[in-house]
TrEMBL record:
This is 16S rRNA (cytosine(967)-C(5))-methyltransferase. It comes from Pseudoalteromonas ulvae. Specifically methylates the cytosine at position 967 (m5C967) of 16S rRNA. InterPro entries: MeTrfase_RsmB-F_NOP2_cat (IPR049560), MeTrfase_RsmB-F_NOP2_dom (IPR001678), NusB-like_sf (IPR035926), NusB_RsmB_TIM44 (IPR006027), RCMT (IPR023267), rRNA_ssu_MeTfrase_B (IPR004573), RsmB-like_ferredoxin (IPR054728), RsmB/NOL1/NOP2-like_CS (IPR018314). GO terms for biological process: regulation of DNA-templated transcription; rRNA base methylation.
Amino acid sequence: MNNLRALAAEVLYQVVDQGQSLNQVLPIAASKVNPKEKALLQQLCYGVLRYLPSLEHYCRELLAKPLKGKQRVFQFLLYVGIYQLQHMRIPPHAAVAETVNALQALNAPGLKGLVNAVLRNFQRRQDELEQAAEQNEVCKYNHPGWFIKLIKSAYPKQWQQILAANQQQAPMWLRVNQQHHTTQQYLDKLNGASISARLVDGFTDAILLDSACDVFSLPGFADGACSVQDGAAQMAARLLDPQEGERILDACAAPGGKTCHILELANKLDVIALDCDQSRLNRVQENLDRIGLSATLQCADASTPDTWWDKQLFDKILLDVPCSATGVIRRHPDIKWLRRAADIEQLATLQASILETNWSLLKPGGTLIYATCSVLPQENSDQVKEFLAKHQDAVHQPLHDNDTLAQPGWQFLPELNDGFYYAKITKKL
Ligand SMILES: C[S@@+](CC[C@H](N)C(=O)[O-])C[C@H]1O[C@@H](n2cnc3c(N)ncnc32)[C@H](O)[C@@H]1O
């Protein structure tokens, strides 16, 4: 099957109903369509995941009874159809005709009448349906109710802005390998190659592209001149501030964006890049190979150092712990539907255990950076606050004026950059 709308419906079914990650299922579907159609397939899948609650609401109104069981794939095809009518510039008659045609590929030509009728009715009743959806907070903001509640309570003034940012397409950022070029030099090279981009204040190694492009069109990409990495994610290595000759642990390293950045910033580093997932660790090696730098890779559980640690203390430790990834929803809209409220508590427990056990691996005088790509205080400032209260030998190092013991750390909210959190803790001598 290589009908892209049919493939989109199947991908969405696998993600939303079967709990699979978009990162896993979308590439398989994309390998079945012709290269020119890949962008549209991705846009349809991302778009439906961004607007899922409102699309569900419209279909509840438009279908006499919901499609169930194996027929759920057709329900997702309806979402694909309505998403095109509501959010894309595809001429409506083409959107309807192509969506109806997808039923052939899904071996359900008998449903053509139904799908056609639902999409035509949506066109007729669009204003009324949209107004009704606005009355319900989950449909209005297109986020799960539990998440809206947590964000409202954590950010009483900014919650709507955060939810709106999550609905946007993320821009493409580059990290310039300072061993090859200064950031300005590389920007000049990009401009010379007619790739329009700019520097952003406060992000030393970063360049923001005006529009996304194929990485192999970037000058020197294959030789490691730059990497694709969000601006806020690039703060990790700068805050760790690696110095020549240091022994550094990157405890949750895969796919290695931050490991590579650390290695680009100083010479003769002894970096251990550890991750519990071997397949993801293989990607660290691929990234290291491309930039031509090396680290010791270790597949192990960061929370059980007894199983892997050689008893040599570290000068610096980066803990980019597993988290809800609620700061990167715009890049991974499936997070909204795969995460559950109960996950947050479980993740906080795992994060506390990784922080606790790795603290004893740090030299007196050493520095630990705790990082997440979450916007939830439960995984961020609450976590660090509790840790600091328990450890007399831990010294909180403020990263800006509002980084206080009452609410430690530096919370980046999703805007130009992704949502990220950092806290810096040093160990008393
Ligand atoms: C946020 S990602 C790390 C991103 C990475 N630092 C980068 O910049 O490319 C978190 C990583 O933690 C790993 N992980 C989860 N639980 C772990 C554990 N108990 N021990 C070690 N790694 C773990 C996951 O496999 C995942 O690769």
